[in-house]
Amino acid sequence: MTEVEIIESIQSGNTKAFSILVERYQEMVFRTAIGFIHNKEDAEDLTQEIFVKVYQSLGSFMGKSEFSTWIYRITVNTALNCVRRKKIERFFDFSDEQLQPVLHQQESADNPEQTMINDESDKLISNAIDKLSQKQKTAFVLSRYEELSQKEIAAIMQTTEGAVEQHLQRAKVNLQKRLTSIVGK
Amino acid sequence: MNTDKYINGYIQREKEIKPNPFLSTRIMSKIEAPLAKRVKVWYSVAVAASISIVIFLGVQLGQITTPDRNTALNINDSEIENFMYYNNETHE
After folding, report:
1. Fold of the domain built from segment(s) A1-94
2. What is the pLDDT of residue A160?
3. What number is the ipTM of this complex?
């Protein structure tokens, strides 16, 4: 069953047909969400939010682009909004952030010291990714997490391949600048 | 380079995270229950409307009992009953 047929079926009242789209694109959306959010629970919530948006805007899908491109676009926009929302929430609430390393350490207590070092470096990398500009982050996540080509990323970001290449290059330089002092060259 | 190695390792670990197997069920149940959301919206509207009505009625009631500022009060202290008579044992 093609995407167009599924959409027609959903629009004629068969809500169950949407589960085919969910099954087909769930992992892709979740992986992208993880790239932006870096947290499993939040990524699951975000995935749910994205699919609700996809369902509500199915009528606006014209078929001019690939269905996957359209879903990626919704995913990226919703993820960027979510990151912005989380930043505001984090500004007012530090308790969860402070508790998380302690809770995480208890889960895998094989080598607490190594776990702590890994957690710390993971946190530094995720912070460095978060500090990238929206365009750089989008290009970086789609390229590294989804392994999409520059052409596909350009279609999602509605820009040129050259611009995508530039965003990726700048993202790489910025990440290296931020991480070299911590993990070495 | 070391940073590349760290970043690649980090991305690889994140890519290996799998969503909850019931995530699709969760999504579908959310989509199939849009009525509940609509009820919730109407519930919020009803609460907001009742608070507004209560505030409006409160202001209206407050305006009814506005004192007449033209009336002058003439209180003569000497006319006030002296309670000392009832508190002092010697007067019993």
Report:
1. Rna Polymerase Sigma Factor; Chain: A (1.10.1740)
2. 95
3. 0.80
Domain ranges of chain A: 1-94, 113-185
The list of chain B residues with pLDDT below 70 reads 1, 34-39, 66-76, 78-85, 87-92
**CATH code, residues A113-185:** 1.10.10.10
CB contact under 8 Å between B1 and A176, yes or no, is yes
- B27 part of contact set with chain A, CB < 8 Å: yes
Question: What CA–CA distance (Å, rounded) separates B7 from B13?
Answer: 10
Give the model's pLDDT for residue A30: 96
pLDDT at B51: 97
The pLDDT assigned to A120 comes to 80
Contact across the interface for B7 and A179, Cβ inside 8 Å: yes
Closest B-chain CA to A129 = B7
Compute the distance between CA of residue A35 and CA of residue B15 in angstroms, rounded to an integer: 8
Q: Where exactly are the structural domains of chain B?
A: 2-91
Nearest of A57, A56, A29 to residue A43 by alpha carbon: A29
Mind telling me how many Å the CA of A58 is from chain B's nearest CA? Answer: 13
Closest residue in B to A172 (Cα) is B4
Q: Which of A15, A43, A175 sits opposite B32 (nearest CB)?
A: A15
Whether the CB of B1 is below 8 Å from some CB of chain A: the reply is: yes
| Integer Cα distance of A145 and A55 in angstroms | 24
pTM above the 0.80 mark?
no
Residues of chain A with pLDDT under 50: none
| Residue linked to tokens 């027609």 | A8
Q: Nearest Cα to A134, choosing from A172, A178, A56, A77?
A: A77
